[in-house]
Amino acid sequence: MNKIELLAPAGSMDSLYAAVQCGANAVYLGGNKFSARAYASNFDNENMKKAVEYCHLYEVKIYVTINTLMKEKELKEALEYAKFLYSIGVDALLVQDAALAVLIKEALPDFELHASTQMTVHNGEGAALLKDKGFKRIVLSRELSLNEIKHISKDLNIETEIFVHGALCVCYSGQCLMSSLIGGRSGNRGRCAQPCRLPYTIVDSISGGEQKGYLLSPKDICTIENIKDIIESGVSSLKIEGRMKRPEYVAAVVSSYRKAIDSILKGSDVNIEQEKKKLLQLFNREGFSKAYLFGNVGKDMMAYTFPKNTGVMLGKVQKDLSIALQEDLSIKDGIRNGEKGFTVSKIIQNGNEVFEASKGSKVKLKPVDFKSGDILYKTSDIKLLSSMESIYKNPFRKKVDLDLKVKFKLNEPIKLSTIYKGKQYSVEGELVQKALKQPLNTDKLKEHLKKSGSTPFRVANIQFDDVQEGFMPVSSINESRRKLIEAIENDLLKVNRTKGLEALKKEKASARPIPKCMICVNMLDQMKAAFENELSDVAVDIFYKKSDIKDEIIKENSVWLKVPNIIKEEFSAVCSKVEELLPYIKGIVTANLGIIHKFKEKTTIIGDYKLNIFNPTSTQFYNDLLDGICLSVELNKSEMLSLAKKSKIPCQIMLYGKVENMVSEYCVIGSTFGNKGVSQNCSRACEKGTFHLKDRMGACFTVNTDKYCRCHIYNSVPTNLIDNIDELEKAGINNYRIDFIDETYNEVNNVLKCVKQKEWNGDFSKFTRGHYKRGVE
């Protein structure tokens, strides 16, 4: 329990200083490239060196994010960058792309790897697979409950990291293609445009009912009240989100969580309500949520009415335009009035201008950017921000105390010694001279020896072993103190590496063939149309909530089983179903690492496109696990062709189908039409209607649910590369996948006839070629 790590974000050097000075045990940050926060300031090589040295002087670990998917041409540069980070002493890398894991394990086998949350690890088997592959730590998906975290961390003895504060993605991290497909900005490449923070309308096509709002915008996570339970779960690291946030935010959040952790580990006092109020003032979206730690609370974890910083309620504007303050207020505080905002320039109380006013006061404000009846919110507190700014402006404010022994004897060198972390450090300086005028007394010596300057250390106590009246220039005394501290710092900055796991170069014992054309269906009519078109390699999704494909149908027909990419507490039940059907099926299709780990020796497995296979080297990671792989839908034509040509594992591409833009533990149907919340379960609205999400531009995204009440949002139009079949085959792509989501029997029949003819026979305006031409940046 005492080894719990508080892990803080650093999007800039000031944020790094703030994190360390406020008590973080480790920080995570990104370089100029390959970071999932491409729009943060990030660190160039020179500042990265400074960051590592600064953190290590305070014995704070530093983790660097190289957690994006990488194009083939980028891998060499990424590996060289990893080598640079290794050479300067970075403690670990956070990785998403399996290719980088392969390359680092070959070139730098003792460089510690952490599996980014972008790898979507959400069950014990998946965590075990990555541990077997050499990952030291797993950053778990934010959708896990406390019991699931405990199972992976304690029962399976896997080192884990979880997010405890900050923004929450509505989609499972690493599974979101929304920004990529609607705007070309890939979240997997660090360029998410955050379409989840935009307004949507959910429409029931059967009843005509609709509901509007910021329906995909979750509240931020805040777990400061639950730190004891989280620590007891066995998790190793508590992570604060916020590399895009300002340093004042980092300072305040880290300091609050430091207090909360210390109250558990050390029994120190903390006012949790006061700390939570501070966190609310810093940033919140209609309050906070606990994510899924204590269950799925539906609408109560969402910020339906306002997707940005809500602030805390300041008061309601009266008829005379005065406000009875519900919070303290100062000049330069930030105020929100609906969608608008302003900074307070004047506060008038009892006819007098004042610099600040207390809660309960009746005041008037300027500028008067409001009217009677408006409710104002305080979005920034200048006093709080200023107090936090003073922390990071002095990066050596926090000091480590040293006890010093001094020998100051005539005609002998001055000698300083101290013990730090059980090791003795000693230095000798210049000779102590006879004083021609006034000799140095012990008070003067103490004064000069206690000047610590720009270092983390401070001389707290001085013991004089042997002192005689003598003289030495102040510069010489300072030089001796500097050398002593420098000796300690040099030890702290040494790069120590221990041999780690060697690269795993396994291959599957006997690769099994994969189909030329695989048809994925979730309804009996779709399956029927596939068989009527003499296409026998059908993958059935019986986990779709409305699926009418029964086990008997599967047992009577030789089909593939499409297993969910997300499986949490129902993992055992899903595995039991797969085991039951295993004698009757050709194999399974999934991107679930846990299922892959569980069944890799038992049947043919084709990796789903949500495995995000982005380059040839990433296929090597799965050599011993998969028989085939459906490539990422974010690749362009040339990238797909190169990958397929170089891969030892047969590759499929998506030829036709609505791509799954999002999969979410939160169900937009159940939380709106079903009214699911903390105190109410869903009314199974998804079973009674047919739903789609409509965005501001009028695009409609199909919304389905599975049997475990997860929400799946599909692209507004299907990808259609049927006209490109000849081109693909000439280039060596011979394996295709066709997905049917909500298509009717007639629509399926038409698509499959076109596939046979290798030509689309209708209007192409209702389709897209996706990233086939351009790919993603």
From TrEMBL:
Q: Please indicate which superkingdom the organism of origin belongs to.
A: Bacteria
Stretches assigned to the Peptidase U32 collagenase domain: 376-491
Q: Which Pfam families match?
A: DUF3656, Peptidase_U32
Looking at the UniProt entry, the stretches that span the membrane are none
InterPro entries associated with the record: Pept_U32_collagenase, Peptidase_U32, RNA/ubiquinone_mod_enzymes
PROSITE patterns from the xrefs? PEPTIDASE_U32
What protein does this entry describe?
A: Peptidase U32
List the source organism: Clostridium carboxidivorans P7
**Higher taxonomy:** Bacteria, Bacillati, Bacillota, Clostridia, Eubacteriales
